[in-house]
Amino acid sequence: xxxxxxxxxxxxxxxxxxxxxxxxxxxxxxxxxxxxxxxxxxxxxxxxxxxxxxxxxxxxxxxxxxxxxxxxxxxxxxxxxxxxxxxxxxxxxxxxxxxxxxxxxxxxxxxxxxxxxxxxxxxxxxxxxxxxxxxxxxxxxxxxxxxxxxxxxxxxxxxxxxxxxxxxxxxxxxxxxxxxxxxxxxxxxxxxxxxxxxxxxxxxxxxxxxxxxxxxxxxxxxxxxxxxxxxxxxxxxxxxxxxxxxxxxxxxxxxxxxxxxxxxxxxxxxxxxxxxxxxxxxxxxxxxxxxxxxxxxxxxxxxxxxxxxxxxxxxxxxxxxxxxxxxxxxxxxxxxxxxxxxxxxxxxxxxxxxxxxxxxxxxxxxxxxxxxxxxxxxxxxxxxx
Length: 385
Fold this sequence. Notes:
Blueprint: H1 3-11, H2 18-26, H3 30-45, E1 48-52, E2 54-57, H4 86-104, H5 116-123, E3 129-132, H6 142-155, E4 160-163, H7 166-176, H8 180-190, E5 194-195, H9 205-211, H10 218-230, E6 234-241, H11 247-264, E7 267-274, H12 290-303, E8 309-310, H13 314-317, H14 319-325, E9 332-335, H15 342-345, H16 356-365, E10 369-373, E11 379-382
Parallel strand pairs: 1-9, 1-10, 2-3, 3-4, 5-6, 6-7, 7-8
Antiparallel strand pairs: 10-11
């Protein structure tokens, strides 16, 4: 099929087929692909590109699994293994809050518009969201995670807690003896607001068994997300690409996500994650190319027509490719991050944090309008073009 026929489908709002997506992946016409994806992104979000003030925390890298693509996990007693206590996690959050309060005392701003209450709610905080994922710890009971959520909410009731991948949810179910539904209900009651999209990796069973044989099946990941959505817990979805998978495997992965989204509508953003090979056990693996990164973002935007947002995760893409991705269908740069360990364990070439002003500058230089958001994509502040 020619790109022109696919472009006509895009312009008329028709859903692309897996065959269309494969044609797009195989095409060398990166400019036409970018133009189509940019059109699709503007149809959904106009000229806006979102970011959030968030803080990533990885409570422990001690994990019972040994995924071949992972450079983060350790066994207890290994060099580099660590585990943060609840007190240490709260201390990390408190340190950032103290620094932010000292800064805000020296500045003032007027809160206007229909989102003024939402803006005021978050004004005294250095971030609006804490993102928590970590290893499957062999010794910590389920109550540890419930107490962690409760402690954060008690100290910072207005912070949105996005925590625990579907893989972690499955593990919590096993160690607690609770069903997946009851596990999610208990976490939600303790303070969980939404789920990240990690752990999806690639759904193809053959490839999944080669890169992460101990991890839950792709079908189980999807079932957990479906259950979370039914309980009113929104989530993101990811796809790890650039390792042993093919274009067809990527499309198969996205098709399953699109089909579930048709049913639940609970996914907020899709995040293609570029594989990083350093310190992993994927033989002869290489970093993804910039062209492949941009293609994957663009095809994601065009194929996942029922996903509101496509995220260019700058930690994995690097700041400049992430900026380019804004011209290839992405409308979200994630956020300030503050402290990222997982990707940097695998050789991420990006920094581990970015300031709000740096994110705004990056978006403006791409010709887009920066919009600071909360975790549900409600705008907190729109910055001039």
